[in-house]
Design a protein that fits this description.
The protein contains eleven helices and 19 strands. By secondary structure, it is of the alpha/beta class. It folds into two domains: about 150 residues, Rossmann fold, CATH 3.40.50.720; about 180 residues, 3-Layer(aba) Sandwich (Rossmann fold). The protein has a seven-stranded mixed sheet with strand order 11-10-9-12-13-15-14, with helices on both faces. Strand 14 and strand 15 form a beta hairpin. The longest helix has 20 residues.
């Protein structure tokens, strides 16, 4: 099992490619063989000839690639599985918690579905973690986007005409995206405050030069995977009250709070937003999973009567596709390298490996992942 097919993405706003020629060339050296769909890298400026030079052959259609492949790699889930052979491994982001019908379809077709967002958050799996690699870039771009829409500059300036105070930015949620947002905002000269329900991240916030906002929510913690635990309704209300004053004083608010596999919590209500300064910018990075900001729209900016603009901030990594592809390609390389049988020069589906157990959803005609076993019924 060593023939890999790299697909051209079909989602209209997708700008990335799952594997770049440099990583593909290294994998060819390990014994993998590649087919690449023509135009797969065109949106990041990578020509077919570069894949050919790296050791791949170019195919014109999905069906031709599907017939060739033992392993399929892409960014997003496919529009259709027609033509994918039974026993093929399909590796991509999949949104498994919302795609039960598609998971059943993969199982019925005998396709081995690897949902890359389910790669465990362990030390050994860090190199394969697409959520972290892409969130890092999204956090950076959220600050850049907000600053570009703000009606003032971000750093303090002392000029003969007078002094300009630094922009105040409040970042809610200190995961990978939040930490990168803090670092970027500090580099841009902002005055940065941040909050997270996990007290353990306070030290990280301070190490980046930001102020950690303390709100007493009672006993809190994080999951084994490092995610924030879901709050009770009472804790959510306490959090909102504690954040309201900080939001009212901020020029930019960026929300990054997502609960893995669940609807995002609403952290900024319409009343809280109504108290913010005219011209303030809010970036809701959880917009498509329910939204942290009441009234946010994943497809359109929302300009309120008080002059506050709410911007849906999902998928911001697509705005920097060259580096986002570089990171995603590194994740795919690490995955194929990790499971490569170096002697047999082929991909080894090792079910004794925690990473494989964590992200392989279907195999041998059924759903095998413990979190989705009820889909077999």
């Amino acid at each position: 099992m060593n023939k890999v097919f790299l697909c051209k993405e079909t989602v209209a706003d997708e700008t990335r490619v799952a594997l770049l020629p440099a990583d593909l060339k290294k994998l060819v050296g390990m014994g993998y063989e590649f087919a690449v769909q023509s135009g797969a890298g065109e949106k990041v400026g990578v020509k077919d000839e570069e894949y050919t030079a790296a050791g791949a052959k170019i195919v014109q259609s999905l069906q031709e690639g599907y017939q060739y492949a033992d392993i399929i790699v892409r960014i997003n889930k496919p529009d259709s599985i027609e033509g994918i052979k039974p026993g093929t491994i399909h590796a991509s982001s999949f949104d498994v918690f919302n795609e039960g019908a598609a998971i059943k379809e993969f199982a019925k077709a005998g396709i081995k579905l690897m949902a890359l967002e389910m790669v465990p958050r362990s030390t050994i799996a860090q190199k394969m973690d697409i959520l972290s690699s892409q969130a890092n870039l999204a956090g950076y771009y959220a600050v850049v986007l907000a600053a570009s829409r703000l009606t003032k500059v971000t750093p303090m300036m002392m000029t003969p005409s007078g002094s300009i105070q630094p922009a105040k930015i409040f970042i809610i949620g200190v995961g990978v995206a939040g930490l990168q947002a803090i670092a970027t905002a500090k580099r841009m000269g902002c005055r940065v405050e941040a909050f997270d329900t996990r007290p353990v991240v306070e030290e990280q916030v301070k190490s980046l030069g930001a102020k950690f906002v303390k709100i007493d929510l009672g006993e809190m913690g994080q999951t084994e995977q490092g995610y924030a635990k879901e709050l009770t309704p009472e804790q959510v209300e306490l959090q909102r009250k504690g954040q309201a004053k900080v939001c009212a004083q901020s020029d930019i608010v960026i929300t990054t709070a997502k609960v893995f596999g669940r609807k995002a919590p609403v952290l900024l209500t319409k009343d809280m937003v109504s108290q913010m300064k005219p011209g303030s910018i809010i970036i809701d990075m959880a917009c498509k999973t329910g939204g942290n900001v009441e009234g946010s729209d994943p497809n359109n900016d929302v300009v309120l009567d008080n002059g506050v603009t709410i911007i849906g901030g999902d998928g911001l990594e697509k705005k920097v596709p060259a580096d986002a592809s570089l990171m995603f390609s590194g994740n795919i390389f690490a995955l194929l390298d990790h499971f490569c049988d170096k002697e047999g020069k082929k991909f080894n589906v090792n079910m004794e490996d925690d990473i494989m157990k964590g992200c392989l959803i279907t195999s041998d005609g059924k759903v095998i992942h413990e979190r989705f076993l009820d889909l077999n019924n």
